[in-house]
Design brief:
Blueprint (H helix, E strand, L loop, with lengths): L5 H11 L38 H11 L12 E10 L11 H4 L5 E9 L14 E9 L2 E8 L12 H8 L15 H9 L4 H7 L14 E2 L4 E4 L5 E10 L8 H10 L3 H11 L5 E10 L25 E10 L4 H6 L12 E2 L4 H17 L81 H9 L2 H16 L4 H14 L1 H10 L34 E5 L6 H13 L3 E6 L3 E4 L5 E4 L1 E2 L10 E4 L3 H8 L2 H12 L3 E5 L2 H7 L16 E3 L2 E4 L8 H12 L11
Parallel strand pairs: 11-12, 11-16, 12-15, 16-17, 17-19
Antiparallel strand pairs: 1-2, 1-9, 2-3, 3-4, 5-7, 6-7, 6-10, 7-8, 8-9, 13-14, 18-19
Helix pairs in contact: 4-5, 5-13, 6-11, 12-14, 13-14, 15-19, 16-18
C-alpha cells in the first residue's frame, strides 16, 4: 500500500467499523433481543387497554421521538461529502510545520460540508444567502477544521454582536416570517445601524449569494490566521478555495423558480456529480503576510470585514481538494459532523481577530447542546485518525470503555500514562507573543473604516454584475415595510457610491440623495469580479436536448457526443417520461419528462431536427416557455435543421437564428444555428455550441419584448 493512502484508508476502515448493514439479519431490540412482532402494541385482549410493559413498543416509539437533534441555529441546511487533500510541493515548509500542507506524499482525508446560513433545514438551497464551506482535515497530527464561507468577509467585526446579527436576519419572532430570506425589516434595520456590515452586504447583494453549484463556488477562511514554522516564527495567512470548474452563479429569477421546482437543487447537484464520477475539485491557496508587515495596509489585518486585495498580496497555490465519496447516511455523517474553528494542528494558530476569538468559544459550546454532551468527538465522522488518549471520562454518550485505575495526571499507579508529550516533535505549542494592556470594551481606531472596501467591491464589478446588485437591493428593501429603514440604508449606500445610492433609491420609493458624501476613491480589484475570469471548460455543464417523436437521432447523437467528449452532461427531455420514436422508427430513451423539470436545471438547450419533432415542439407551450426562459436567462441555445423553426415559435424573434445555407454555422448572442441536418452536420456546430456554453451566459444578448 502506498504511504500517501494510509490515513485515507484508515479513516475509511474506521467508518466502515461503525456501519450496520441490515441485509440478512433479524429484527431485534436495542439490547439485541429478537422481536417476533412489530405491528401491534401489547394489549389486554384485541380491544382492551394497552400495556406499559410492552418494552419493544416503548423503545421503538421513544427512539422515534428522539430521532431529531436540535438543528444548527445557523448553517442548518447543508450537504456534505468525503474526499482528500494533497499538497503540491514542500514550498510552504518555511512557513508552517503542518505536514498536510507541506508533504506532497500525504493524501489527507477530509469531510466537507456546504450549507446556507439563515434558513432552517427545510428551506430551499437556492435562496439569497451566504454559503458555508467547512472542511475537516483528518491529518496525522490531529483534526484541523477550516470553517470557511463563500465570501471572504463577514457582517460584523466582533463576535459579541453575532447573536444580534443572527436574530436580525432570522425570521421575525412575532410571526416566524420570512424563511431563509434577508428581505425583511429587522435585517435591514440592523444593517442601517451597523455600517461595518456594508462590505459584506455588497457581497450578499451580488451574484456570489446565488451559486450555480457548490462545485462552482469559491471558499474563504474569512479571518487572518497565523502559520507557524518549526522554529516558532509566525506568518499571517488568509485561506482561499478556488473551484476547478470556475466560479459561476444563478440568476435571481432562476433561484426563485428552482426553489419551487427543486428545493434540493444544490445538494442534488453535488450528490449526482460524485455518484457519476465527476469529482468536484478545488485548489487551496494562501495569502502570506510577514509579521513585519502587519501594519503596512490601510486597514487592520484583524478586521474580518476586510479583504487583502490580491493585487497587493497574490494568492499562492498550495494544494488540491477532491471530493470523491458521498456519505452513506445523511444524519450520522452530514448532520452530526461537528466543526470548530479552534480545532487546529501544529503549524497553524490564531490571531487576535475579535470575531475569531468569539467563534473559538461559541462552536464548542454549540456542539455540547446540539450533540448531547461532551463526547461528540467520538461520533465516527468526527473521530480523528490519530489515537486519542486522555483522562476525559464519562458524560453523555460515552462510547469508549476507558481502562485502568488512573484518570489523572501526574500518576504513578498507571505508569505515568498518558504521558505529557513534552518536546516530542509533533506536540502542539501555542505561538508566543507579548500581550499587555488594560481591560476595556472599545474597538480599535483601525477598525473604523466601514466604506472604502465596500466601494472597492462596487468599483470591481462589471456592468452586468452592477445591474444585478442594484436589482437585489431593490428587491430586498422593497420587502421592508418601514420607510425609515429604507431611507437609512440609502444613506449608508451613499457613503459607498453616490450613483449606487441613487439607483437603489429610485427603485424603492425613497428620495435619491442629492449630495455625494464621500468621493469614490476609484480603486478596483479585478479578482473580485466573477465575469472577468471565465472558464473555457464545459465539464459537468448540463444540456437539455428537447425531443419528441420523429427526432433526428443521428444528428442528435452527433452533437451530444461532441458535448460529452468535452465533459458536458446531456439529458433528453421529452413530452413525457419513457421513450420517443426517432425518424427511422427506432426508440430513443428519454431521461426526464418536461413536466418534471425547469429551464433553471440546465446550462444550455439543444433543439434537434426532424419535421415531426419540430411540429410537436412548436405546438407545445411548455417547450416555448422552456426555450424562452433559457434565452431570457442568457443561456446558450443551439438548433439544427428544422429545429431552428422551434426557436422562432418560442418567441426568439429579433435575433438572427437562421443559417443562410446548408453548411454554415451562425453563432450570435449565444444562439448557435445551422440549416444542416444529420447528413451535413459538421463538427464545427458542436464546437461552436460548446464555446458558447463555456461563457456561462450571453450577457450581451438583447432582452425579449
Amino acid at each position: 500500500m502506498a504511504s500517501d493512502d494510509l490515513s485515507h484508508d484508515r479513516k475509511q476502515e474506521q467508518l466502515d467499523a461503525y456501519r450496520v448493514d441490515p441485509a440478512g439479519t433479524r429484527l431485534t431490540t436495542d439490547q439485541g433481543v429478537l422481536v417476533d412482532h412489530t405491528d401491534d402494541y401489547l394489549t389486554v385482549g384485541e380491544r382492551g387497554p394497552t400495556l406499559l410493559e410492552d418494552f419493544h413498543a416503548r423503545e421503538k416509539i421513544t427512539r422515534f421521538d428522539h430521532e431529531r437533534i436540535p438543528e444548527r441555529v445557523v448553517h442548518a441546511r447543508g450537504a456534505g461529502a468525503y474526499g482528500f487533500f494533497q499538497a503540491y510541493d514542500t514550498s510552504l515548509a518555511e512557513f508552517t510545520c503542518a505536514r498536510f500542507l507541506t508533504d506532497p506524499a500525504l493524501r489527507t482525508p477530509v469531510f466537507v460540508r456546504f450549507s446556507t446560513v439563515a434558513g432552517s433545514r427545510g428551506s430551499a438551497d437556492t435562496v439569497r444567502d451566504v454559503r458555508g464551506f467547512a472542511t475537516k482535515f483528518y491529518t496525522e497530527q490531529g483534526n484541523y477544521d477550516l470553517v470557511a464561507n463563500n465570501m471572504p468577509v463577514f457582517f460584523i467585526q466582533d463576535g459579541i454582536k453575532f447573536p444580534d446579527f443572527v436574530h436580525a436576519v432570522k425570521p421575525e419572532p412575532h410571526n416566524e416570517i420570512p424563511q431563509a430570506q434577508s428581505a425583511h425589516d429587522t435585517f435591514w434595520d440592523f444593517v442601517s445601524l451597523q455600517p461595518e456590515s456594508l462590505h459584506m452586504v455588497m457581497w450578499l447583494m451580488s451574484d456570489r449569494a446565488l451559486p450555480r453549484s457548490y462545485r462552482m463556488m469559491q471558499g474563504f477562511g474569512v479571518h487572518t490566521f497565523r502559520l507557524v514554522n518549526a522554529d516558532g516564527r509566525g506568518t499571517f495567512v488568509k485561506f482561499h478555495w478556488k473551484p476547478a470548474l470556475g466560479t459561476h452563479s444563478l440568476l435571481w429569477e432562476e433561484c426563485q423558480q428552482l426553489a419551487g421546482a427543486d428545493p434540493d437543487f444544490n445538494r442534488r447537484d453535488l450528490w449526482e456529480a460524485i455518484e457519476s464520477g465527476q469529482y468536484p475539485e478545488w485548489e487551496l491557496g494562501v495569502q502570506l503576510v510577514p509579521e513585519s508587515d502587519e501594519f503596512a495596509f490601510d486597514f487592520d489585518l484583524l478586521d474580518a470585514t476586510k479583504i487583502i486585495p490580491e493585487e497587493q498580496v497574490p494568492v499562492r497555490p498550495v494544494g488540491r481538494l477532491v471530493l470523491d465519496r458521498n456519505p452513506q447516511n445523511f444524519f450520522a455523517e452530514t448532520e452530526q459532523v461537528a466543526f470548530h474553528t479552534a480545532n487546529i494542528v501544529p503549524g497553524i494558530d490564531f490571531t487576535n481577530d475579535p470575531l475569531l476569538q468569539a467563534r473559538n468559544f461559541s462552536y464548542l459550546d454549540t456542539q455540547l447542546i446540539r450533540l448531547g454532551g461532551p463526547n461528540f468527538a467520538q461520533i465516527p465522522v468526527n473521530r480523528p485518525v490519530t489515537p486519542v488518549t486522555n483522562n476525559n471520562r464519562d458524560g453523555y454518550h460515552q462510547t469508549q470503555i476507558p481502562a485502568g485505575r488512573t484518570a489523572y495526571t501526574k500518576n504513578s499507579l498507571g505508569g505515568g500514562c498518558p504521558a505529557i508529550a513534552g518536546d516530542f516533535p509533533e506536540v502542539f505549542k501555542h505561538y508566543q507573543e507579548k500581550v499587555e494592556g488594560h481591560k476595556i470594551r472599545r474597538r480599535a481606531a483601525s477598525f473604523q473604516d466601514f466604506y472604502s472596501q465596500a466601494t472597492l467591491f462596487w468599483n470591481s464589478m462589471s456592468e452586468v454584475e452592477r445591474e444585478h446588485i442594484v436589482d437585489a437591493f431593490r428587491f430586498e428593501l422593497g420587502k421592508c415595510a418601514d420607510t425609515g429603514v429604507r431611507e437609512r440604508v440609502v444613506e449608508r449606500l451613499n457613503a459607498v457610491d453616490h450613483g449606487l445610492a441613487r439607483l437603489v433609491a429610485q427603485g424603492i420609493g425613497v428620495t435619491p440623495p442629492e449630495q455625494e458624501v464621500t468621493p469614490n476613491h476609484g480603486r478596483s480589484s479585478p479578482a473580485l469580479s466573477q465575469l472577468l475570469a471565465p472558464t473555457d471548460s464545459i465539464a459537468t455543464r448540463k444540456v437539455a436536448a428537447l425531443v419528441a417523436d420523429g427526432v433526428d437521432a443521428v444528428g442528435l447523437g452527433r452533437v451530444a457526443d461532441a458535448l460529452r467528449e468535452r465533459g458536458a452532461v446531456v439529458e433528453l427531455i421529452g413530452p413525457v417520461d419513457g421513450a420517443v420514436a426517432d425518424a427511422d422508427g427506432g426508440q430513443v430513451p428519454v431521461d426526464r419528462g418536461i413536466n418534471t423539470v425547469a429551464s433553471g436545471f440546465f446550462d444550455a438547450v439543444l433543439v434537434p431536427c426532424g419535421p415531426d419533432v419540430v411540429r410537436a415542439l412548436s405546438g407545445d407551450g411548455r417547450v416555448a416557455r422552456f426555450v424562452n426562459e433559457a434565452f431570457r436567462h442568457g443561456k446558450a441555445i443551439a438548433a439544427f435543421g428544422g429545429g431552428v423553426d422551434v426557436l422562432g415559435a418560442a418567441g426568439l424573434r429579433g435575433v438572427r437564428v437562421a443559417a443562410t445555407d446548408e453548411t454554415s454555422v451562425v453563432a450570435e448572442h449565444g444562439v448557435v444555428t445551422t440549416a444542416a441536418a444529420a447528413g451535413d452536420l459538421g463538427d464545427d456546430f458542436g464546437a461552436a455550441f460548446a464555446s458558447e456554453i463555456a461563457l456561462h451566459r450571453a450577457w450581451d444578448r438583447p432582452k425579449l419584448p
